[in-house]
Design goal:
The chain has 507 residues and is an alpha+beta fold. It folds into three domains: 114 residues, Alpha-Beta Complex (Cathepsin B, Chain A), CATH 3.90.70; 192 residues, VKOR domain (de novo design (two linked rop proteins), Up-down Bundle), CATH 1.20.1440.130; 153 residues, Glutaredoxin (3-Layer(aba) Sandwich), CATH 3.40.30.10. 53% of the residues lie in helices and 13% in strands. The chain contains 18 helices and twelve strands. The strands form three sheets. A six-stranded antiparallel β-sheet has the order 1-6-2-3-4-5. Strands 10-9-11-12 form a four-stranded mixed β-sheet, sandwiched between helices. A hairpin with a 2-residue loop joins strand 11 and strand 12. Helix 6 runs antiparallel to helix 9. The longest helix is centred in the middle third of the chain and has 41 residues. The relative contact order is 0.08.
Length: 507
Protein backbone atom coordinates (compact mmCIF):
# COMPACT_ATOMS: atom_id res chain seq x y z
CA UNK A 1 0.00 0.00 0.00
CA UNK A 2 2.20 2.78 -1.29
CA UNK A 3 1.45 6.20 0.14
CA UNK A 4 2.70 8.18 -2.87
CA UNK A 5 0.13 10.94 -2.28
CA UNK A 6 0.41 11.03 1.48
CA UNK A 7 1.41 14.72 1.50
CA UNK A 8 -1.99 15.61 -0.02
CA UNK A 9 -3.68 13.74 2.80
CA UNK A 10 -1.34 15.49 5.26
CA UNK A 11 -2.45 18.80 3.71
CA UNK A 12 -6.12 17.96 4.32
CA UNK A 13 -5.49 16.82 7.90
CA UNK A 14 -3.51 19.96 8.73
CA UNK A 15 -6.49 22.00 7.57
CA UNK A 16 -8.84 20.12 9.87
CA UNK A 17 -10.70 17.94 7.34
CA UNK A 18 -11.86 14.60 8.85
CA UNK A 19 -11.06 12.44 5.82
CA UNK A 20 -9.43 9.02 6.09
CA UNK A 21 -6.38 8.19 4.00
CA UNK A 22 -8.14 5.12 2.59
CA UNK A 23 -11.04 7.23 1.33
CA UNK A 24 -8.74 9.85 -0.18
CA UNK A 25 -6.45 7.24 -1.75
CA UNK A 26 -9.33 5.29 -3.32
CA UNK A 27 -10.87 8.38 -4.89
CA UNK A 28 -7.66 9.96 -6.18
CA UNK A 29 -6.28 6.73 -7.65
CA UNK A 30 -9.55 6.00 -9.45
CA UNK A 31 -9.71 9.41 -11.12
CA UNK A 32 -9.29 9.02 -14.92
CA UNK A 33 -6.88 12.00 -15.09
CA UNK A 34 -4.71 10.99 -12.13
CA UNK A 35 -2.11 12.33 -11.29
CA UNK A 36 -3.02 15.72 -12.78
CA UNK A 37 -3.94 18.93 -10.95
CA UNK A 38 -7.49 18.45 -12.25
CA UNK A 39 -7.65 15.03 -10.58
CA UNK A 40 -6.59 16.41 -7.20
CA UNK A 41 -8.92 19.41 -7.47
CA UNK A 42 -11.94 17.30 -8.44
CA UNK A 43 -11.18 14.73 -5.74
CA UNK A 44 -11.05 17.49 -3.13
CA UNK A 45 -14.39 18.81 -4.43
CA UNK A 46 -15.93 15.34 -4.35
CA UNK A 47 -14.80 14.93 -0.74
CA UNK A 48 -16.49 18.22 0.14
CA UNK A 49 -13.36 20.37 0.27
CA UNK A 50 -13.70 23.68 -1.55
CA UNK A 51 -10.49 24.43 -3.40
CA UNK A 52 -8.91 26.78 -5.89
CA UNK A 53 -6.33 25.87 -8.53
CA UNK A 54 -4.55 28.92 -9.91
CA UNK A 55 -1.38 30.39 -11.39
CA UNK A 56 -0.15 32.95 -8.86
CA UNK A 57 2.56 35.57 -9.53
CA UNK A 58 5.44 35.15 -7.10
CA UNK A 59 4.92 38.75 -6.04
CA UNK A 60 1.61 37.62 -4.51
CA UNK A 61 3.25 34.91 -2.39
CA UNK A 62 2.52 36.76 0.86
CA UNK A 63 -1.21 36.79 0.07
CA UNK A 64 -1.66 33.06 -0.44
CA UNK A 65 -2.54 30.73 2.50
CA UNK A 66 0.13 29.50 4.90
CA UNK A 67 -0.32 25.96 3.57
CA UNK A 68 -0.84 25.02 -0.08
CA UNK A 69 -0.03 22.49 -2.78
CA UNK A 70 2.54 23.71 -5.30
CA UNK A 71 3.90 22.41 -8.59
CA UNK A 72 7.70 22.47 -8.60
CA UNK A 73 10.36 21.31 -11.02
CA UNK A 74 13.22 19.44 -9.41
CA UNK A 75 15.86 17.39 -11.26
CA UNK A 76 13.93 17.90 -14.53
CA UNK A 77 10.88 16.33 -12.92
CA UNK A 78 7.59 18.14 -12.28
CA UNK A 79 5.89 17.12 -9.06
CA UNK A 80 3.26 18.35 -6.63
CA UNK A 81 4.43 19.10 -3.11
CA UNK A 82 2.80 20.29 0.08
CA UNK A 83 4.24 23.62 1.21
CA UNK A 84 4.12 25.18 4.68
CA UNK A 85 5.29 28.71 5.28
CA UNK A 86 7.83 28.40 8.07
CA UNK A 87 9.00 32.00 8.28
CA UNK A 88 9.28 35.03 6.02
CA UNK A 89 12.36 33.57 4.37
CA UNK A 90 11.85 29.80 4.49
CA UNK A 91 9.34 27.03 3.80
CA UNK A 92 8.85 23.37 4.65
CA UNK A 93 8.22 21.17 1.61
CA UNK A 94 6.62 17.72 1.90
CA UNK A 95 6.80 15.14 -0.87
CA UNK A 96 4.99 11.96 0.11
CA UNK A 97 6.40 11.42 3.64
CA UNK A 98 9.68 13.27 3.14
CA UNK A 99 10.15 16.74 4.59
CA UNK A 100 12.71 19.23 3.27
CA UNK A 101 13.55 22.79 4.27
CA UNK A 102 14.09 25.44 1.61
CA UNK A 103 14.94 29.09 1.72
CA UNK A 104 12.36 31.23 -0.04
CA UNK A 105 14.79 31.93 -2.90
CA UNK A 106 15.42 28.20 -3.36
CA UNK A 107 11.70 27.50 -3.41
CA UNK A 108 11.02 30.31 -5.90
CA UNK A 109 13.66 28.87 -8.23
CA UNK A 110 11.72 25.56 -8.32
CA UNK A 111 8.14 26.86 -8.23
CA UNK A 112 6.33 28.08 -11.36
CA UNK A 113 3.43 29.71 -9.48
CA UNK A 114 0.85 26.90 -9.80
CA UNK A 115 -0.99 26.24 -6.53
CA UNK A 116 -3.93 24.29 -5.17
CA UNK A 117 -5.31 26.08 -2.13
CA UNK A 118 -8.08 25.33 0.37
CA UNK A 119 -9.59 27.14 3.33
CA UNK A 120 -9.12 25.68 6.78
CA UNK A 121 -12.15 23.76 7.96
CA UNK A 122 -13.56 25.78 10.86
CA UNK A 123 -15.94 23.04 11.98
CA UNK A 124 -15.09 21.61 15.37
CA UNK A 125 -14.01 18.00 15.03
CA UNK A 126 -14.41 15.85 18.08
CA UNK A 127 -11.45 13.57 18.64
CA UNK A 128 -12.90 10.18 19.43
CA UNK A 129 -10.94 8.02 21.77
CA UNK A 130 -11.33 4.30 21.50
CA UNK A 131 -12.07 3.58 25.15
CA UNK A 132 -12.80 -0.08 24.45
CA UNK A 133 -9.37 -0.61 22.90
CA UNK A 134 -7.65 1.23 25.76
CA UNK A 135 -9.58 -0.83 28.31
CA UNK A 136 -8.52 -4.07 26.60
CA UNK A 137 -4.86 -2.94 26.60
CA UNK A 138 -5.04 -2.13 30.31
CA UNK A 139 -6.70 -5.46 31.16
CA UNK A 140 -4.07 -7.42 29.19
CA UNK A 141 -1.24 -5.46 30.84
CA UNK A 142 -2.64 -5.99 34.35
CA UNK A 143 -3.23 -9.72 33.76
CA UNK A 144 0.29 -10.05 32.35
CA UNK A 145 1.84 -8.33 35.38
CA UNK A 146 -0.25 -10.43 37.79
CA UNK A 147 0.96 -13.64 36.11
CA UNK A 148 4.57 -12.48 36.46
CA UNK A 149 4.09 -11.59 40.13
CA UNK A 150 2.05 -14.65 41.18
CA UNK A 151 4.34 -17.16 39.43
CA UNK A 152 7.43 -15.77 41.12
CA UNK A 153 9.55 -15.83 37.96
CA UNK A 154 13.31 -15.50 38.22
CA UNK A 155 14.98 -12.52 36.57
CA UNK A 156 16.38 -14.80 33.85
CA UNK A 157 12.92 -16.15 33.09
CA UNK A 158 11.49 -12.62 32.92
CA UNK A 159 14.33 -11.63 30.58
CA UNK A 160 13.48 -14.57 28.32
CA UNK A 161 9.80 -13.54 28.27
CA UNK A 162 10.61 -9.96 27.30
CA UNK A 163 13.04 -11.14 24.62
CA UNK A 164 10.21 -13.21 23.14
CA UNK A 165 7.94 -10.15 23.17
CA UNK A 166 10.65 -7.99 21.59
CA UNK A 167 11.31 -10.59 18.90
CA UNK A 168 7.58 -10.89 18.21
CA UNK A 169 7.31 -7.11 17.78
CA UNK A 170 10.23 -7.08 15.30
CA UNK A 171 8.63 -10.00 13.42
CA UNK A 172 5.26 -8.24 13.33
CA UNK A 173 6.79 -5.02 11.96
CA UNK A 174 8.66 -7.05 9.34
CA UNK A 175 5.42 -8.78 8.31
CA UNK A 176 3.68 -5.41 7.99
CA UNK A 177 6.41 -4.23 5.62
CA UNK A 178 6.16 -7.45 3.64
CA UNK A 179 2.38 -7.10 3.28
CA UNK A 180 2.61 -3.49 2.14
CA UNK A 181 1.69 -1.52 5.26
CA UNK A 182 3.84 1.52 5.80
CA UNK A 183 4.73 3.36 8.99
CA UNK A 184 6.54 6.69 9.12
CA UNK A 185 8.85 5.80 12.00
CA UNK A 186 9.65 2.33 10.66
CA UNK A 187 10.45 3.81 7.24
CA UNK A 188 12.88 6.27 8.83
CA UNK A 189 14.69 3.42 10.59
CA UNK A 190 14.69 1.15 7.54
CA UNK A 191 16.05 3.82 5.20
CA UNK A 192 18.37 5.58 7.64
CA UNK A 193 21.51 4.81 5.60
CA UNK A 194 22.47 4.35 1.96
CA UNK A 195 23.04 0.62 2.45
CA UNK A 196 19.77 -0.09 4.24
CA UNK A 197 16.39 -1.04 2.77
CA UNK A 198 13.99 -3.32 4.62
CA UNK A 199 11.71 -3.47 1.61
CA UNK A 200 14.40 -4.74 -0.78
CA UNK A 201 15.53 -7.47 1.62
CA UNK A 202 12.08 -8.61 2.77
CA UNK A 203 10.54 -8.77 -0.72
CA UNK A 204 13.55 -10.30 -2.47
CA UNK A 205 13.54 -13.90 -3.69
CA UNK A 206 15.84 -15.02 -0.87
CA UNK A 207 13.49 -13.54 1.69
CA UNK A 208 11.68 -16.88 1.70
CA UNK A 209 13.55 -19.31 3.93
CA UNK A 210 11.41 -22.47 3.84
CA UNK A 211 9.14 -22.90 0.82
CA UNK A 212 6.77 -19.93 0.89
CA UNK A 213 7.54 -18.98 4.49
CA UNK A 214 9.57 -15.84 5.08
CA UNK A 215 11.82 -14.98 8.01
CA UNK A 216 9.02 -12.87 9.51
CA UNK A 217 6.51 -15.76 9.26
CA UNK A 218 8.82 -18.18 11.03
CA UNK A 219 9.84 -15.53 13.56
CA UNK A 220 6.22 -14.74 14.47
CA UNK A 221 5.48 -18.41 15.10
CA UNK A 222 8.80 -18.96 16.91
CA UNK A 223 8.61 -15.98 19.27
CA UNK A 224 4.87 -16.50 19.84
CA UNK A 225 5.46 -20.12 20.86
CA UNK A 226 8.48 -19.16 22.95
CA UNK A 227 6.46 -16.49 24.78
CA UNK A 228 3.60 -18.86 25.62
CA UNK A 229 5.90 -21.59 26.93
CA UNK A 230 8.01 -19.12 28.91
CA UNK A 231 4.84 -17.76 30.51
CA UNK A 232 3.50 -21.14 31.58
CA UNK A 233 6.69 -23.18 32.02
CA UNK A 234 8.95 -20.93 34.03
CA UNK A 235 12.06 -23.06 33.54
CA UNK A 236 11.61 -23.38 29.79
CA UNK A 237 14.71 -21.26 29.16
CA UNK A 238 16.74 -23.92 31.01
CA UNK A 239 15.34 -26.85 29.09
CA UNK A 240 17.01 -29.06 26.56
CA UNK A 241 14.38 -28.09 23.97
CA UNK A 242 15.35 -24.41 23.96
CA UNK A 243 18.99 -25.39 23.58
CA UNK A 244 18.12 -27.39 20.44
CA UNK A 245 16.06 -24.48 19.10
CA UNK A 246 18.91 -22.08 19.80
CA UNK A 247 21.32 -24.29 17.86
CA UNK A 248 18.89 -24.31 14.92
CA UNK A 249 18.50 -20.54 15.11
CA UNK A 250 22.27 -20.14 14.65
CA UNK A 251 21.81 -21.33 11.06
CA UNK A 252 18.99 -18.79 10.55
CA UNK A 253 21.21 -16.02 11.95
CA UNK A 254 24.08 -16.99 9.66
CA UNK A 255 21.86 -17.25 6.58
CA UNK A 256 20.19 -13.88 7.21
CA UNK A 257 23.46 -12.01 7.77
CA UNK A 258 25.16 -13.61 4.75
CA UNK A 259 22.16 -12.94 2.48
CA UNK A 260 21.91 -9.27 3.49
CA UNK A 261 25.66 -8.63 3.28
CA UNK A 262 26.66 -10.49 0.12
CA UNK A 263 23.51 -11.18 -1.92
CA UNK A 264 21.16 -8.21 -1.59
CA UNK A 265 23.95 -5.95 -0.30
CA UNK A 266 21.40 -4.08 1.77
CA UNK A 267 20.75 -4.18 5.50
CA UNK A 268 17.26 -4.71 6.87
CA UNK A 269 17.24 -3.26 10.39
CA UNK A 270 14.02 -5.10 11.26
CA UNK A 271 15.61 -8.40 10.21
CA UNK A 272 18.71 -7.48 12.20
CA UNK A 273 16.43 -6.87 15.19
CA UNK A 274 15.06 -10.42 14.88
CA UNK A 275 18.57 -11.82 14.46
CA UNK A 276 19.82 -9.88 17.50
CA UNK A 277 17.05 -11.27 19.73
CA UNK A 278 17.78 -14.80 18.49
CA UNK A 279 21.47 -14.28 19.22
CA UNK A 280 20.81 -13.10 22.81
CA UNK A 281 18.46 -16.05 23.37
CA UNK A 282 21.20 -18.39 22.13
CA UNK A 283 23.68 -16.96 24.62
CA UNK A 284 21.16 -17.30 27.48
CA UNK A 285 20.33 -20.90 26.58
CA UNK A 286 24.01 -21.93 26.30
CA UNK A 287 25.00 -20.23 29.56
CA UNK A 288 22.01 -21.43 31.58
CA UNK A 289 21.66 -25.00 30.30
CA UNK A 290 21.89 -27.47 33.23
CA UNK A 291 21.67 -30.93 31.61
CA UNK A 292 17.92 -30.98 32.17
CA UNK A 293 16.67 -33.33 29.43
CA UNK A 294 12.95 -32.53 29.31
CA UNK A 295 11.34 -33.40 26.00
CA UNK A 296 7.74 -32.35 26.78
CA UNK A 297 8.37 -28.59 26.28
CA UNK A 298 9.98 -29.38 22.93
CA UNK A 299 6.87 -31.29 21.83
CA UNK A 300 4.62 -28.49 23.11
CA UNK A 301 6.76 -25.92 21.33
CA UNK A 302 6.53 -27.84 18.05
CA UNK A 303 2.75 -28.08 18.37
CA UNK A 304 2.34 -24.36 19.15
CA UNK A 305 4.77 -23.41 16.38
CA UNK A 306 2.78 -25.33 13.75
CA UNK A 307 -0.56 -23.97 15.00
CA UNK A 308 0.67 -20.36 15.01
CA UNK A 309 2.42 -20.70 11.64
CA UNK A 310 -0.68 -22.23 10.03
CA UNK A 311 -2.97 -19.61 11.58
CA UNK A 312 -0.75 -16.74 10.47
CA UNK A 313 -0.55 -18.18 6.94
CA UNK A 314 -4.35 -18.09 6.72
CA UNK A 315 -4.44 -14.52 8.06
CA UNK A 316 -1.83 -13.48 5.46
CA UNK A 317 -3.98 -14.94 2.69
CA UNK A 318 -6.97 -12.86 3.82
CA UNK A 319 -4.86 -9.69 4.11
CA UNK A 320 -3.34 -10.25 0.65
CA UNK A 321 -6.78 -10.83 -0.85
CA UNK A 322 -8.04 -7.68 0.86
CA UNK A 323 -5.36 -5.59 -0.87
CA UNK A 324 -6.06 -7.33 -4.19
CA UNK A 325 -9.78 -6.62 -3.86
CA UNK A 326 -9.09 -3.01 -2.97
CA UNK A 327 -6.97 -2.64 -6.10
CA UNK A 328 -9.79 -4.20 -8.15
CA UNK A 329 -12.20 -1.74 -6.52
CA UNK A 330 -9.98 1.20 -7.54
CA UNK A 331 -9.68 -0.14 -11.11
CA UNK A 332 -13.44 -0.67 -11.31
CA UNK A 333 -14.11 2.81 -9.95
CA UNK A 334 -11.69 4.25 -12.52
CA UNK A 335 -13.67 2.47 -15.25
CA UNK A 336 -16.96 3.83 -13.90
CA UNK A 337 -15.52 7.35 -13.86
CA UNK A 338 -14.38 7.17 -17.48
CA UNK A 339 -16.33 9.91 -19.26
CA UNK A 340 -15.97 8.29 -22.69
CA UNK A 341 -17.71 5.14 -21.45
CA UNK A 342 -20.33 7.23 -19.65
CA UNK A 343 -21.08 9.30 -22.77
CA UNK A 344 -21.23 6.17 -24.93
CA UNK A 345 -23.82 4.57 -22.64
CA UNK A 346 -25.76 7.82 -22.45
CA UNK A 347 -26.00 8.18 -26.24
CA UNK A 348 -27.69 4.77 -26.47
CA UNK A 349 -30.44 5.90 -24.09
CA UNK A 350 -33.82 7.20 -25.23
CA UNK A 351 -34.31 10.95 -25.47
CA UNK A 352 -37.09 12.84 -23.73
CA UNK A 353 -38.71 16.20 -24.34
CA UNK A 354 -37.61 18.55 -21.58
CA UNK A 355 -40.09 21.20 -20.51
CA UNK A 356 -38.52 23.57 -17.99
CA UNK A 357 -41.94 24.99 -17.18
CA UNK A 358 -43.34 21.69 -15.95
CA UNK A 359 -44.35 21.66 -12.30
CA UNK A 360 -41.71 19.69 -10.40
CA UNK A 361 -40.17 19.89 -6.95
CA UNK A 362 -37.41 22.23 -7.98
CA UNK A 363 -35.07 24.90 -6.74
CA UNK A 364 -34.70 26.41 -10.20
CA UNK A 365 -36.03 25.33 -13.61
CA UNK A 366 -32.60 24.82 -15.19
CA UNK A 367 -31.39 21.49 -13.85
CA UNK A 368 -29.67 18.72 -15.80
CA UNK A 369 -31.13 16.07 -13.48
CA UNK A 370 -34.75 15.08 -12.93
CA UNK A 371 -35.51 12.31 -10.47
CA UNK A 372 -38.83 10.50 -10.91
CA UNK A 373 -40.15 8.80 -7.78
CA UNK A 374 -43.15 7.06 -6.31
CA UNK A 375 -44.06 7.16 -2.59
CA UNK A 376 -44.84 3.43 -2.61
CA UNK A 377 -41.71 2.27 -4.44
CA UNK A 378 -39.10 0.49 -2.32
CA UNK A 379 -36.39 1.00 -4.95
CA UNK A 380 -37.12 4.74 -4.89
CA UNK A 381 -35.71 4.89 -1.39
CA UNK A 382 -32.17 4.23 -2.58
CA UNK A 383 -32.68 6.50 -5.59
CA UNK A 384 -33.86 9.39 -3.42
CA UNK A 385 -30.85 9.18 -1.12
CA UNK A 386 -28.56 9.17 -4.16
CA UNK A 387 -30.31 12.35 -5.31
CA UNK A 388 -29.96 13.82 -1.84
CA UNK A 389 -26.22 13.10 -1.86
CA UNK A 390 -25.99 15.22 -5.01
CA UNK A 391 -28.20 17.92 -3.50
CA UNK A 392 -25.97 18.05 -0.42
CA UNK A 393 -23.06 18.74 -2.79
CA UNK A 394 -24.98 21.75 -4.18
CA UNK A 395 -26.04 19.94 -7.35
CA UNK A 396 -29.50 20.98 -8.51
CA UNK A 397 -31.87 18.02 -8.79
CA UNK A 398 -35.54 18.41 -9.72
CA UNK A 399 -37.94 15.75 -8.45
CA UNK A 400 -41.38 14.62 -9.50
CA UNK A 401 -43.90 11.90 -8.72
CA UNK A 402 -45.03 9.43 -11.37
CA UNK A 403 -48.46 8.68 -9.94
CA UNK A 404 -51.94 8.88 -11.46
CA UNK A 405 -54.01 11.42 -9.49
CA UNK A 406 -57.20 10.03 -11.07
CA UNK A 407 -56.80 6.70 -9.31
CA UNK A 408 -58.69 7.10 -6.01
CA UNK A 409 -57.77 3.56 -4.92
CA UNK A 410 -54.10 4.51 -4.57
CA UNK A 411 -53.75 5.18 -0.85
CA UNK A 412 -50.33 6.81 -1.38
CA UNK A 413 -51.95 9.75 -3.20
CA UNK A 414 -52.54 11.31 0.20
CA UNK A 415 -48.75 11.40 0.78
CA UNK A 416 -48.16 13.02 -2.62
CA UNK A 417 -50.82 15.66 -2.01
CA UNK A 418 -49.29 16.52 1.34
CA UNK A 419 -45.68 16.71 0.05
CA UNK A 420 -46.52 18.80 -3.03
CA UNK A 421 -48.67 21.13 -0.94
CA UNK A 422 -45.79 21.56 1.52
CA UNK A 423 -43.50 22.37 -1.41
CA UNK A 424 -45.91 25.07 -2.57
CA UNK A 425 -46.02 26.58 0.92
CA UNK A 426 -42.50 26.12 2.28
CA UNK A 427 -40.20 25.53 -0.67
CA UNK A 428 -37.57 23.13 -1.93
CA UNK A 429 -35.31 22.58 1.11
CA UNK A 430 -38.22 21.80 3.42
CA UNK A 431 -39.64 19.36 0.87
CA UNK A 432 -36.33 17.50 0.57
CA UNK A 433 -36.34 17.07 4.37
CA UNK A 434 -39.92 15.83 4.16
CA UNK A 435 -39.05 13.30 1.46
CA UNK A 436 -36.07 12.16 3.50
CA UNK A 437 -38.37 11.57 6.46
CA UNK A 438 -40.81 9.61 4.28
CA UNK A 439 -38.19 7.34 2.72
CA UNK A 440 -36.64 6.70 6.13
CA UNK A 441 -40.04 5.64 7.47
CA UNK A 442 -41.68 2.24 7.14
CA UNK A 443 -44.26 3.66 4.67
CA UNK A 444 -47.03 3.63 7.29
CA UNK A 445 -49.13 6.42 5.86
CA UNK A 446 -51.44 7.34 8.74
CA UNK A 447 -48.78 7.38 11.46
CA UNK A 448 -46.35 9.37 9.27
CA UNK A 449 -48.97 11.97 8.30
CA UNK A 450 -50.04 12.28 11.92
CA UNK A 451 -46.42 12.89 12.91
CA UNK A 452 -46.24 15.66 10.28
CA UNK A 453 -49.48 17.29 11.51
CA UNK A 454 -51.36 16.51 8.31
CA UNK A 455 -54.67 18.34 7.91
CA UNK A 456 -56.69 17.66 4.75
CA UNK A 457 -58.42 21.04 5.04
CA UNK A 458 -55.08 22.82 4.58
CA UNK A 459 -54.39 21.11 1.25
CA UNK A 460 -55.01 23.15 -1.90
CA UNK A 461 -56.49 20.10 -3.60
CA UNK A 462 -57.18 21.60 -7.01
CA UNK A 463 -53.72 23.13 -7.40
CA UNK A 464 -51.90 20.01 -6.23
CA UNK A 465 -54.08 17.79 -8.44
CA UNK A 466 -53.11 19.83 -11.51
CA UNK A 467 -49.43 19.59 -10.59
CA UNK A 468 -49.56 15.82 -10.10
CA UNK A 469 -51.55 15.43 -13.31
CA UNK A 470 -48.99 17.45 -15.24
CA UNK A 471 -46.14 15.29 -13.90
CA UNK A 472 -48.01 12.07 -14.69
CA UNK A 473 -48.93 13.12 -18.25
CA UNK A 474 -45.34 14.17 -18.95
CA UNK A 475 -44.10 10.74 -17.82
CA UNK A 476 -46.68 9.01 -20.01
CA UNK A 477 -45.81 11.14 -23.03
CA UNK A 478 -42.16 10.13 -22.64
CA UNK A 479 -43.06 6.44 -22.06
CA UNK A 480 -41.73 6.49 -18.50
CA UNK A 481 -43.99 3.89 -16.91
CA UNK A 482 -41.78 2.92 -13.99
CA UNK A 483 -39.99 4.30 -10.97
CA UNK A 484 -37.39 5.24 -10.09
CA UNK A 485 -36.26 6.87 -13.32
CA UNK A 486 -33.62 9.51 -13.85
CA UNK A 487 -33.34 12.06 -16.61
CA UNK A 488 -29.86 13.43 -17.26
CA UNK A 489 -29.89 16.36 -19.65
CA UNK A 490 -32.32 15.10 -22.32
CA UNK A 491 -31.66 11.36 -21.89
CA UNK A 492 -33.22 8.63 -19.78
CA UNK A 493 -30.35 7.63 -17.54
CA UNK A 494 -29.01 4.17 -18.39
CA UNK A 495 -29.87 1.31 -16.05
CA UNK A 496 -26.30 0.07 -16.64
CA UNK A 497 -25.13 2.92 -14.42
CA UNK A 498 -25.89 3.69 -10.80
CA UNK A 499 -27.50 7.01 -10.00
CA UNK A 500 -24.63 7.59 -7.58
CA UNK A 501 -22.24 7.60 -10.58
CA UNK A 502 -23.69 10.94 -11.68
CA UNK A 503 -21.57 12.71 -9.09
CA UNK A 504 -18.50 12.00 -11.22
CA UNK A 505 -19.87 13.82 -14.27
CA UNK A 506 -21.58 16.88 -12.85
CA UNK A 507 -20.07 20.27 -13.50
Amino acid sequence: MKNTDYHFYHFLKDNNYPITYEDFSKNINSHPDYPSLLAYSETFSYLGVENLAAQVPKEEYENIPDTFIALIKESNDNKFVYVKKKSKNSVEVYSNKTKSNYSLDQFFSLWDGVILAIDENEAVIEKKTNTVKKTIYWIISIVFLLILILNNYSWLSILSIFLSILGFVFALLTSREELGFEDDQVQKICNSSENSSCNEVIKSAGGKIINSFSLSDLALAYFGSSFLLNMFISDFYLSFSLLILSILSVFVIGYSLYYQKFTVKRWCFLCLGIVSVLFVQCIISFLSYNNNFIYLPFILFGFLFLVLLSSWSLVKVFITRFFELRKIEVDFLKLKRNKKIFDALLTTSESVIIDNNINTIKKSPNSDIIGILSPSCGFCKKAFFNYKELIDKNVEVNLMFNINPDNPDNKYLKVCYFIINEFNLKGYSHTIQLLESWYKSSFEIDSWLKEKNYDAENIDTEKVYNQLKEMFVWCQDNTINYTPATIFKDKIYSTDLDISDLKFFIG
